[in-house]
């Protein structure tokens, strides 16, 4: 193994490899004088053609710009057209269509949830209104309003102030409360 390592590091073996590479490069780049002149001539012709094509292209671009100006097509108009075309491409893409469908479905589901929620809330308010506590409260409010009306009608000649009417309504409501409590307790006794 040591002899191989020395062989790789040996200056003579490196020189042989370099000479082989140089000879390969020289073989690939070996061009005769005739071929060289022919290649240079072809290169010159190509450069002239490129220059001519650039001039023709420049002339055509100028003509293009002039014709668009005559038609009234401005850069802004072209930009709008490009934007419209791009927007159309986006709308016709499958990703856009899938997103639109997904959002539509989500909107429909959200609407259904809110509708159901509204129905549940309405039902709960209906249940609450039919509850005994609410009916008792409603009766007290009705009695109070009736007492206020009776007090006001009964005292038409005096025309008392708002405070007097309010205190008399409170007094009338306080008098009715024990009788309501007695009827509630008697209902409770019947149930038990």
TrEMBL record:
Swiss-Prot/TrEMBL keywords: Coiled coil
Coiled coil: 29-70
Keyword Coiled coil recorded: yes
Composition-biased stretches (Polar residues): 174-185
Composition skew (Acidic residues), residue ranges: 13-23
Segments of this protein annotated with the region Disordered: 1-23, 148-192
Entry keyword Electron transport: no
Homology family: Belongs to the TPD52 family.
Official protein name in the record: Tumor protein D53
